[in-house]
């Protein structure tokens, strides 16, 4: 049964509006100033003062500019923090353009393989439509960067600096996605025409050669050997010759990436806590590391992040940064806008409801570098962003603990901080995690 909106309904709605206290004044304020400015809560600015009981010294922030590589910047930031401290190099950065090159190249191959796997399905199948909607993009997740580093290593930013196209990626993304969709037409036709495996592979290799050329023109040539030359904070000169990207990573970062685990907080009915999950068609390196998420309750989730911060290690995290946030002030707080009061309407949804109904998912990755503990409980968190130093407190943001509860979905934690029973879950379920659909919100790519 359906019911139309009648003229009587409209008359009643108008009467309800006129009967709302202060409606005329509020209407003028919203029309002239916008929703957020009118609903702004000044108390939030006071509560979100950037003072923390636990705070890591991490230096100046990076700037991803007009690109969606936040996940990459955030992960490389966690690695550069140790290099800055150990080798006394303030302001040091790892090359985000180098990992960007290999990410886009590997994503192209990943796309081709998924096109071939789904070539027997019609174009209007949900999986094929999902695949073709965005063949590749700037966004990603922690395990995807780990897969790149395990295969290609990393290099200093001075060895492969930013280009126009890495800092402003829309032109490259548009061109590469056009190319990949065109290639999908050919690959699907080869399968439909019963071409043999050798012919299909030959066609794919030609496509990859063209992709490599496009990326080389746009981003530059990724180095295979280089000298690392720098002067430290004490003005001492250093040079390390004939390094490869893999030897540089092993010598200057030295992490075993298998020691780090993606932890999620997804309180939806389809994802019981204390289990491991992966997402179909989510990744970049064919044959490389796959995404593995351990879903935990929010209290355990936060306790692990605090434990790592207390040990002096920053924490990569993924969140929905556009929710209840002020970019310029650098405040992330559920109380920053009083929209319920302004409109006399209840906008409340639970975290699970927002995930299930498409209201929220992970959009942006940043780094936790501090937390304020009062009476044994966290009240606010220090956040290193990658939007340059003209926003927030010289690029650093402050997140309230309630905002963390509601809009943080992922942290990356060293397994040594996990209790034995959770380490056992990872060991026991790693080979056979629960597989989520490609469009599951936990498969969202951080790309703001």
From TrEMBL:
Gene3D superfamilies, alphabetized: Cysteine proteinases
Protein's UniProt keywords contain Hydrolase: yes
A family per Pfam: Peptidase_C1_2
PANTHER family: BLEOMYCIN HYDROLASE
Keyword Transmembrane assigned: no
Compartments reported by the entry: Cytoplasm
InterPro entries per UniProt: Papain-like_cys_pep_sf, Pept_cys_AS, Pept_his_AS, Peptidase_C1B
Top-level division of the source organism's lineage: Bacteria
Keyword annotations: Aminopeptidase, Hydrolase, Protease, Thiol protease
Family stated for the protein in its record: Belongs to the peptidase C1 family.
Active site: 70, 364, 385
Organism, scientific name: Lacticaseibacillus chiayiensis
A single GO molecular function term of this UniProt record: cysteine-type aminopeptidase activity
The protein's name in its UniProt record: Aminopeptidase
A GO biological process held by the record: proteolysis
């Amino acid at each position: 049964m359906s019911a139309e909106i009648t003229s009587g309904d409209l008359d009643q709605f108008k009467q309800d509006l006129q009967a709302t206290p202060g409606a005329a004044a509020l209407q003028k304020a919203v029309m002239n100033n916008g929703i957020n400015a009118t609903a702004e809560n000044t108390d939030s600015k006071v509560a979100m003062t950037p003072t923390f009981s636990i705070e890591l010294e991490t230096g100046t922030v990076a700037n991803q500019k007009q690109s969606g590589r936040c996940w990459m910047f955030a992960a490389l930031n966690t690695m550069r923090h140790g290099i800055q401290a150990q080798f006394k190099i303030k302001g040091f950065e790892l090359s985000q353009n180098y990992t960007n090159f290999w990410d886009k190249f590997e994503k192209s191959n990943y796309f081709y393989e998924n096109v071939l796997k789904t070539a027997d399905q019609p174009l209007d199948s949900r999986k094929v439509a999902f695949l073709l909607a965005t063949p590749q993009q700037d966004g990603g997740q922690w395990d995807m960067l780990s897969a790149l580093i395990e295969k290609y290593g990393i290099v200093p930013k001075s060895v492969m600096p930013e280009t126009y196209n890495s800092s402003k990626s829309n032109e490259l993304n548009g061109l590469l996605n056009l190319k990949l969709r065109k290639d999908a037409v050919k690959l699907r036709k080869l399968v439909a025409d019963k071409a043999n495996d050798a012919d299909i592979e030959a066609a794919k290799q030609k496509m990859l050669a063209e992709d490599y050329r496009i990326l080389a023109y746009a981003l530059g040539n990724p180095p295979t050997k280089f000298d690392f030359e720098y002067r430290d904070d004490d003005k001492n000169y250093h040079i390390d010759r004939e390094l490869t990207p893999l030897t540089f990573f092993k010598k200057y970062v030295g992490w075993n990436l298998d020691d780090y685990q993606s932890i999620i907080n997804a309180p939806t009915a389809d994802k019981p806590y204390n289990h491991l999950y992966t997402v179909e068609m989510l990744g970049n390196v064919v044959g490389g590391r796959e995404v593995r998420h351990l879903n935990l309750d929010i209290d355990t989730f936060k306790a692990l992040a605090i434990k790592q911060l207390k040990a002096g290690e920053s924490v990569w995290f993924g969140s929905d940064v556009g929710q209840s946030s002020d970019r310029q002030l650098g405040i992330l707080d559920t109380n920053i806008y009083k929209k319920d009061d302004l409109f006399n309407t209840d906008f409340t949804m639970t975290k699970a409801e927002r995930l299930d109904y498409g209201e929220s998912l992970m959009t942006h990755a940043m780094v936790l570098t501090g937390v304020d503990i009062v009476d044994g409980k966290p009240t606010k968190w220090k956040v290193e962003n990658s939007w340059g130093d003209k926003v927030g407190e010289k690029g650093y943001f402050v997140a309230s603990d309630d905002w963390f509860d509601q809009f943080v979905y992922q942290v990356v934690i060293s397994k040594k901080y996990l209790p034995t029973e959770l380490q056992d879950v990872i060991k026991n379920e790693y080979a056979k995690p629960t597989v989520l659909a490609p469009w599951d919100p936990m498969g969202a790519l951080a790309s703001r």
